[in-house]
Amino acid sequence: MDTSIFDDKNNAPWESTLTEALGDSYGVWKNIRDYVYQKHSKAIEEWKFPGVKYGWSFWLKDKKRVIIYLLPRDKYFKISMVFGKRAIEEIMLTDISAEIKELLVAAKVYAEGCGIRIDVRDESQLNDIKKLIDIKLT
């Protein structure tokens, strides 16, 4: 099952435990978090525990919506984002990777939009993730 490495409801992750759990990918996590604050200085961060099935996840949001979810795994993490129709159309017109565009096309449609998850193990997708954040915040 694909769940957070942090699965104890009574123990939210600390920066030190996160750094250890993510290993080399922690720098990319921090880069993404810092980028959201650079683009949206009033962003709010929050650790959430939606249930045992998912474990702890890190949310960066504004007053109305979640900008990006960061989902810690063992030595890597996933990002999750939800996009509405207009944002998806904009993404399709960019130079974001075909792999991410394919994820969006294949995504199930919900009332709030289409959600995608991307495994992040290194910096190779960082530019695309930043572009997705930019689109999310427009």
Question: How is the secondary structure organized here?
Answer:
Elements: H1 15-22, H2 26-39, E1 44-48, E2 57-61, E3 66-72, E4 77-83, H3 85-92, H4 98-106, E5 109-110, E6 113-120, H5 126-136
Antiparallel strand pairs: 1-2, 2-3, 3-4, 4-6, 5-6
Helix pairs in contact: 2-5
- Order of strands, main sheet, comes to 1-2-3-4-6-5
Task: Give the C-level CATH assignment.
Answer: Alpha Beta
Give the beta-strand count: 6
Tally the helices.
Answer: 5
- Average of the residue pLDDT scores: 94
Number of domains: 1
Helical/strand content category: alpha+beta
Q: What would your notes on this structure say?
A:
The protein has 138 residues and is α+β, with helices and mostly antiparallel strands. It has one domain: Aspartate Aminotransferase, domain 1 (Alpha-Beta Complex). Helix content is 36%, strand content 25%. The protein has 5 helices and 6 strands. Strands 1-2-3-4-6-5 form a 6-stranded antiparallel beta sheet. α2 packs parallel to α5. The radius of gyration is 15 Å and the shape is globular. The protein starts with 14 loop residues before the first helix and ends with a helix.
Q: What are the key terms here?
A:
alpha+beta, 36% helix, 5 helices, Aspartate Aminotransferase, domain 1, single chain, six-stranded antiparallel sheet, 138 residues, 6 strands
What is the structure about, briefly put?
With 138 residues, this protein is α+β, with helices and mostly antiparallel strands. Helices cover 36% and strands 25% of the residues.
